[in-house]
């Protein structure tokens, strides 16, 4: 099998009318500069105080429509972005989530309502992006019933078929050079620092031509079921990430100790 050169999809999470206005303007400029067609993960009815960084932007939905018309893909990013459930997710990276473990009837209602809100603003959501990677088999059933059969999640190195939907994996949160495979780079507009944006800009300067739309990713890497070795690799990547998350507070404490001793 020939190794296909790496391609990247950019995903922007936590978009809603109260997104940090100045930062979001910088991201829009970056999308325009490099003609990017990212996944835009939109919270339909945000109630998460952390995503209320600016007064509601009356122009927000028009911006989303324009970006979609230019080739970006709109994703349903949960419903209210309130992660009060502790159910087990199909991608078990975090303990709390909005959807995993919630009664199927409720999940169905949230998904139907979320899609109706986005469609009411003239958008055409085609993917699911779960807040905190939290979703279960009931979520996928509800999504399939609503005609959403694309999920952005998982740690394989190419799009794949599982549980009756197509998964476009999302594995990185910053620019990383890869030799092969399809890599989704996820950014959060409110919390990305100037340094992180600059690093991405430099990466785009070298690799913008390797960034593709959702359609491009699926055309370049036609999804099939993962082979055993690929499943094991993805599970290993998830385990390493879980460990890194678990160690984060310890590392922070260590860093504090070493900096206070200088
Ligand atoms: Zn989110």
Protein architecture, described:
It contains seven helices and eight strands. α3 (104-120) packs across α4 (137-145). The protein has two domains: 7-226, Glycoside hydrolase/deacetylase (TIM Barrel, Alpha-Beta Barrel); 228-262. The protein has helices spanning 21-33, 60-69, 104-120, 137-145, 194-207, 214-220, 228-261, and strands at 7-15, 39-42, 73-76, 127-128, 150-152, 160-162, 165-168, 182-187. With 262 residues, the chain is an alpha/beta fold. Helix content is 40%, strand content 13%. The termini are far apart. The chain has a five-stranded parallel β-sheet. The chain has a three-stranded mixed β-sheet with strand order 5-7-6, with helices on one face. Bound molecules: zinc ion.
The proportion of strand residues reads 5-15%
Query: What's the architecture of the largest domain in CATH terms?
Result: Alpha-Beta Barrel
How many domain modules? 2
Strand order of the largest sheet: 4-3-2-1-8
Features:
globular, TIM Barrel, binds zinc ion, 2 domains, 5-stranded parallel sheet, 262 residues, alpha/beta
Summarize the structure.
By secondary structure, the chain is of the alpha/beta class. 40% of the residues lie in helices and 13% in strands.
Secondary structure elements and their pairing?
Blueprint: E1 7-15, H1 21-33, E2 39-42, H2 60-69, E3 73-76, H3 104-120, E4 127-128, H4 137-145, E5 150-152, E6 160-162, E7 165-168, E8 182-187, H5 194-207, H6 214-220, H7 228-261
Parallel strand pairs: 1-2, 1-8, 2-3, 3-4, 5-7
Antiparallel strand pairs: 6-7
Helix pairs in contact: 3-4
The protein binds zinc ion.
């Amino acid at each position: 099998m020939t190794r296909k050169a790496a391609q990247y999809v950019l995903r922007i999470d936590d978009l809603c009318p109260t997104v940090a206005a100045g930062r979001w303007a910088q991201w829009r400029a970056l999308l325009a500069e490099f003609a990017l067609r990212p996944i835009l993960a939109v919270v339909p009815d945000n109630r998460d105080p952390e995503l209320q960084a600016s007064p509601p932007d009356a122009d927000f939905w028009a911006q989303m429509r324009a970006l979609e018309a230019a080739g970006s893909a709109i994703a349903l990013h949960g419903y209210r972005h309130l992660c009060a459930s502790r159910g087990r997710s199909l991608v078990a990276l975090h303990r709390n989530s909005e959807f995993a473990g919630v009664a199927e009837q409720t999940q169905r209602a949230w998904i139907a309502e979320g899609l109706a809100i986005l469609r009411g603003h003239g958008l055409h959501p085609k993917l699911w992006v779960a807040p905190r990677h939290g979703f279960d088999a009931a979520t996928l059933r509800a999504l399939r019933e609503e005609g959403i059969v694309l999920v952005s999640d998982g740690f394989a190195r190419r799009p794949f078929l599982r549980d009756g939907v197509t998964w476009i994996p999302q594995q990185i949160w910053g620019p990383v050079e890869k030799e092969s495979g399809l890599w989704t780079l996820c950014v959060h507009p409110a919390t990305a620092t100037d340094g992180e944006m600059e690093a991405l800009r430099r990466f785009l300067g070298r690799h913008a031509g390797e960034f593709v739309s959702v359609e491009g990713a699926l055309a370049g890497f036609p999804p099939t079921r993962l082979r055993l070795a690929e499943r094991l690799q993805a599970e290993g990547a998830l385990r390493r990430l879980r460990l890194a998350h678990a160690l984060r507070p310890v590392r922070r404490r260590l860093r504090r100790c070493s900096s206070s001793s200088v």
